[in-house]
Q: What sequence folds into this?
């Protein structure tokens, strides 16, 4: 006798521009680039002249989001933007853009900037992946470009994506638009993402949910906690 399929558990979340319904067994969290090089003093973000302290609150919320997903058994993927030691996957145009004080590959306080395996390219301790969670090393801004992410999501029958991380208008938005074009239903957790520029974050959230959610949905973490409390299962 065949074993009956497990019934899908649906969760209804108050979101903008309208409620978001997600199937827990077919949903994954993509936690984007919560790395020391972007979040801590001395990293690449600071060398570009940014105030990295602005990202601290998002780290706290992102930890709460991770705890929520892990408790419910939602698949978790972590991405990090990092390059090979020989910079063979880093275009010269990218390395030179912005005339930073330290360029990608240069020695910095946490090792070579944005080089895979260096301390600075690793995740902040609060958001370290657990055993069994997938880490995607990406050479670009979007998490689908030159990575196995798309294949992994298809292999695990994922249809819905929750997104969080930094920075909102760059790697997070790029990944969300890539996912949207591939047919995924996407929601960005508003307080688990952040930008060095508050006006850029606000504009990105508005663009995502404009025109009836042309790119996707947004909601704060509290909406997920409330939805879980109200869930019938």
A:
């Amino acid at each position: 006798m065949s074993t009956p399929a497990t019934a899908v558990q649906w969760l209804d979340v108050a979101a903008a521009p309208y409620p978001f319904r997600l199937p827990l067994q077919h949903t994954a969290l993509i936690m984007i680039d919560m790395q020391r090089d972007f979040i801590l003093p001395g990293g690449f973000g600071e060398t570009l002249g940014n105030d990295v302290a602005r990202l601290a609150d998002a780290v706290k919320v992102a930890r709460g989001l991770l705890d929520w997903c892990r408790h419910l058994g939602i698949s978790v993927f972590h991405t990090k933007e990092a390059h090979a030691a020989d910079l063979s996957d880093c275009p010269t145009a990218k390395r030179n853009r912005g005339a930073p004080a330290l360029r990608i590959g240069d020695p910095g306080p946490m090792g070579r900037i944005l080089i895979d395996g260096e301390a600075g390219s690793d995740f902040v301790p609060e958001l370290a992946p657990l055993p069994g969670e997938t880490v995607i090393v990406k050479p670009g801004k979007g998490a689908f470009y030159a990575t196995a992410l798309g294949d992994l999501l298809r292999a695990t029958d994922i249809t819905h994506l929750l997104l969080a991380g930094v920075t909102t208008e760059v790697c997070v938005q790029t990944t969300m638009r890539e996912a949207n074009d591939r047919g995924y239903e996407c929601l960005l957790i508003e307080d688990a993402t952040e930008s060095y520029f508050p006006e850029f974050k606000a504009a990105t959230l508005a663009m995502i949910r404009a025109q009836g959610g042309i790119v996707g949905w947004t909601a704060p973490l509290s909406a997920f906690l409330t939805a879980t409390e109200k869930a019938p299962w």
